[in-house]
Amino acid sequence: MAGEVVVSDRVCVGPCNRQARAVWQVFLGEREAHADAVDRWLASGGEGEPPPEPAVPVVEWRAGEPLHCGRCRATGRRALLVVDELAASLAARPGEVKAQSRWSRVKGTRPHGSLSGEADLVHTVTGEVLRLRREVARRLELADQPPAGRSGMARSRSVSWLVDKLDAALALDGLTVVSSVEDDERTVELGPVEWALAWENKLRRLVDDAPGHTLARCPGCGERHLEWAPRAGYYVCGGCGRHVSEAEALELVTEEASA
Q1: Are 191 and 172 in contact (CB under 8 A)?
Q2: From what superkingdom does this record's organism come (predicted)?
Q3: Is residue 104 part of a domain?
């Protein structure tokens, strides 16, 4: 992992530091519990040894450039493109019921059916893509006219627009997306990269397209211990902790097979 992780005062706010944040959060909880234990010890007279302090974990953080590291920017860019591809795949499935429009019913005829579950998801993710585009344009003070409606073309054009502006967008402090990706009834607020990854993972499950086991050797330690981390969007080596993208893993397998 040498040369990949940088200790910095300004850490990346993206998913690359998810594990480090989880470890640090556990430590903060242990420290709070220790403070309570010390209070109880003092209240009881302070006899004997005080409660032992929790060990401070050794945590290495990937630096932000300025807010997101290069890997998280690349992950976000890839995830956006994959989300558009998967949404298009779902929308093209036979038997999907399209959304009604004001032109879809003639007076006196039976109304068309409502959106199917999968088509409803496509409609939702398209709406969130368009909202993110409008927010980025507003924050960057860009003159932009998003496509009207929630068609596949509007989504694809907006994804291309976001990919083109992503470096600038990910440098915006506090940029988030209010999303229904986890639950239709309860929205969550996610950073742009985490949001794109969450939709990628959800849509991959629907089309049965999640990356599986890879035989690639870790470029860090040479072992075959790469496991896919869905919420991070890359493989993680179980031996040395190295992060390897899906494309990089495929290249490693191809290179080894052709050697």
Answers
A1: no
A2: Bacteria
A3: no
Residue 26 lies in a domain: yes
Instruction: Supply the DSSP string of 102-134, one letter for each residue.
Output: TTS--TTSPPPP---HHHHHHHHHHHHHHHHHH
Helix (H) or strand (E) holding 193: helix 192-207
Question: 177 and 249: one domain?
Answer: no
Angle, nearest 10°, between helix axes 152-169 and 70-91? Answer: 180
Residue 128 lies in a domain: yes
Model confidence, pTM: 0.69
| Rounded-to-10 torsion of CA 219, 223, 229, 232 | -20
Count of residues making up the chain: 259
Q: Are 86 and 197 within one domain?
A: yes
Element (H, E) at 91: helix 70-91
Q: What is the pLDDT along the chain (259 residues), one digit of tens a residue?
A: 333 444 446 899 998 888 888 899 999 999 999 999 999 999 998 888 999 999 999 888 888 899 999 989 999 999 999 999 999 998 887 654 444 333 333 444 434 434 457 788 899 999 999 999 999 999 999 988 877 788 999 999 999 999 999 999 999 999 999 999 988 788 999 999 999 999 998 898 888 766 667 888 898 898 888 888 876 677 888 888 888 877 788 778 777 776 5
Q: 244 pairs with which residues across the strands?
A: 235
Here the tokens at position 176 are: 């988030």
**Residue 12, Cβ density class (10 Å: 0-12 exposed, 13-18 middle, ≥19 buried):** buried
Domain that includes residue 245, residue range: 212-259
